[in-house]
């Protein structure tokens, strides 16, 4: 009989699974200047978002390094900014340092929303049956609906797991009713171990594990995080200079390991006796039946098929650099 994580992984790859994402931080932004202020701060085009639309974005420092990765949802009267777990307060503080006379008001709303990610080839139709609505195809677009008698917001995911995704957001008080309705429709609960395997197989880098304050935005898969037509934002000059005049010296890449031991984050990636990178996150891949990792690797050794080793304890485990997402 397959293990629980294996069957959870299979549910997302073949049907539908539901991941509790209530650990994410939430900032509510109101005021007439909310969009223009965020637009000037973040790397994507916030001012262009109409109610019912959204995008992913980053807050950079002046050197083009990623301070946090965010998702922004535009509503009629406010914007919701979803942060990584535990990062709402620090994000609020960082943005507040740039707030002067603008009419933009931030309130931390972490814990007020229940958030579920429904993922898998059957996810859109399952949510559509339960909620009576489905968001547009564009990532982070959203519409109102009802699940289990509770009002919800349905948000189109961006393929974090490599599968079609719908986020279901409700008031925290309605968590049990919403989850029961999703289970009743056939969505299987998915825990952290299976979700990490799905995420890493899909090549989805996450903050702060794979993308941190020392990471330049162009070092990671970032096209969905940036607009090159929006005008100025913090760190823009560095991002554009790298695009137009050069390249970064390291990149987030996949690594496929031999054996059955999953390396720890921080494990060295070695080639020709020299450290050429380090593992940022790793998991057992039930699709590939072997350990896989995301790693920050020097450009000179980042080509798909490059033979490397990964230090796992005292062992040097043979491995191969892979394109992302991993082939399944």
Strands, count: 17
CATH topology of the domain at 4-22 and 112-201: Gyrase A, domain 2
Class by alpha and beta content: alpha+beta
Spans where pLDDT lies below 50 across 5 or more residues? none
The main β sheet shows up as: 6 strands, mixed
Distance linking N and C termini: 22 Å
One letter per element, helices H and strands E, the order comes to HEEHEEEHEEHEEEHEHHEEEEEE
Note the total helix count: 7
Average pLDDT, all residues: 96
Q: So, CATH architecture of the domain at 4-22 and 112-201?
A: 2-Layer Sandwich
Which CATH class of the domain at 4-22 and 112-201 applies here? Alpha Beta
| Rg, alpha carbons | 20 Å
The CATH superfamily of the domain at 4-22 and 112-201 appears as Probable tRNA modification gtpase trme, domain 1
Record the strand order, biggest sheet: 8-9-10-7-1-11
What percent of the residues sit in helical stretches (DSSP H or I)?
A: 10-25%
**Dominant shape:** globular
Strand content: 25-35%
